[in-house]
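quick q for whoever's on today - can somebody do inverse folding on this one?? i tried earlier but teh output was garbage lol. tokens:
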């Protein structure tokens, strides 16, 4: 198989040289790779994240849905680039092989698959929370054990995001009742 791939690569390069489209192929390869990576937060795009969960090793993991708090207000206060920089720095935690991090809905929602059990994931999340706090950011999250190949990642993320949304709405209603928020 390796030999066939090597022969295919040689033939493709030879045809590219003969017909003068090696640069086009290289440009297209770069573009395809860039579609899977979000350079703003330095994480996978949603589509790449989903593809990678399909080939995730069959071990128990922890799925995490994380939603940064009050990002729109912070964008107005600090500017988009500064908020992006702070989020990127927050998400730059040391990852184990098998850990996946990607953007989800509108952009400030992050989904992770951590290659560890929930009790270890809590320690990772606490470290991320410390970094976020140092950047004057906060987030609401939910997590649960996820079994690749058994649990549907879409359903898992939907359940986690619903949990996060319910908690954020409850917190907002509580703040309104206390007169902290209008």
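ok took a stab at it. sequence:
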């Amino acid at each position: 198989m390796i030999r066939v791939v090597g022969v295919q690569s040689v033939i493709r390069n030879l045809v590219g040289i003969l017909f003068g489209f090696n640069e086009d192929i290289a440009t297209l390869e770069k573009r395809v790779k860039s579609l899977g990576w979000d350079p703003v937060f330095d994480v996978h795009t949603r589509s790449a994240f989903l593809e990678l969960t399909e080939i995730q090793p069959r071990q128990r993991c922890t799925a995490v849905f994380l939603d940064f708090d009050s990002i729109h207000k912070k964008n107005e206060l600090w500017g988009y680039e500064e908020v992006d920089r702070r989020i990127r720095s927050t998400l730059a935690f040391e990852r184990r092989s098998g850990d996946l991090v990607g953007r989800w809905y509108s952009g400030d929602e992050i989904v992770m698959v951590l290659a560890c059990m929930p009790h270890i994931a809590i320690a990772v999340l606490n470290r991320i929370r410390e970094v976020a706090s140092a950047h004057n950011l906060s987030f609401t999250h939910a997590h649960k054990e996820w079994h690749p190949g058994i649990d549907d990642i879409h359903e898992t993320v939907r359940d986690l995001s619903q949990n996060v949304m319910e908690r954020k709405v409850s917190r907002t209603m509580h703040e309104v009742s206390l007169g902290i928020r209008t």
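fwiw The first strand starts at residue 37 and ends at 38. also The chain has two domains: 2-34, 37-177. so keep that in mind when u check it
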